[in-house]
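**User:** My hope is that you can spare some time for a protein that puzzles me. I have put the entry right below:
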Amino acid sequence: MKINILSPGRFHVCDLARELAAHGHDVRFYSFVPKSRTHKFGLPDACARPVLIWVVLPLILSRVLGKMGLSNWANHAVNWWLDLVVSCLMEPCDVVIAMSGIFHRSITRAKSKWGSKILIERGSRHILSQKKILDELRLLNSKAKTVSESDVWHELRDYEIADRIVVPSRHVVESFVEFGVAEKRLFGNPYGVDLSMFSPTFTPSGKPTVLMTGSWCYRKGCDFLAEAMKETGYRLLHAGPQGDCPFPTEGWFETVGVLDQSILKNTYARAHVFVLPSREDGWGLVLAQALACGLSIVCSDKTGGRDLLEMMDDKNKVIIINSGDVDALREGIVKAMSFALDCQGLRQISESAREQMSWKAYGERYHHFLTNLVNGSKHE
């Protein structure tokens, strides 16, 4: 198949482009990302279609407008120009895979001119579900970012035209069904993880340690985590930037700041249990990274935890709690710690679980889905 993949940045779809190209498809990856960078992530140069040169001036203008407090307007202006450029440069194709809310002109042209199948990549819950959750955060922080009405309009417009909407987890599927999207129009495909970068680690010695990586913010439930940790007697280690949630001031908390992903495994190796109690997180790539390093994980039902649990042979590796339930979160952490401390030496998940979590498996699932979708339409 001839497949056009449209994205502003690398995201997970650069990995998707690489995997689909490995299956023999004629893939073109349109993005801001230069060939020198996509090449580092294994994408053949022949697949890369960088468009940054066409968008440099709008990007510079958007930074100026952002400093003037007009960042939302500026972002939409850049996306509009990017969509216009891609719609003009895009080559004929059988399938378009586009990040949601950005490329409406491009996907409309491909569908009307070439009869292309349109797949929209949505990494989070249905936009209306996401907006409801983020609006509620403003009760905790009046400056918390939410979803604009313009974002809602752009997303809903793409949902309508898409032949299929591709999402990473079961709870995201359920959010779309809740807002009236037929499940048959959805394709749930969990993201992969770089297994060469995240491999089994040894159980650390010393004080029982809980790890959370990513922005320390309300959206990721860090206020729940801080409250749950108070009575455990464990140490809490954080890697990442500080977001809109205040850091704990107690001695059991430590943050190491932002780390390059290439050395993140060393931080996973310092902890026994990984926790992500998000209010809203479409997948939570860090959960897969932690599992690949052998840690037990505790996560909310608003992450990809349920999907990861299905991949595990050892079901004790994943504990899922309801988002916002601090008591259940504390109990889950204590339970996971008990399992983790019983595991001495090299800690690892089964080879079959690792295979299911790989980018290769992600690409294979996508390849089979596209084959059935396109072949099925030919026989209708």
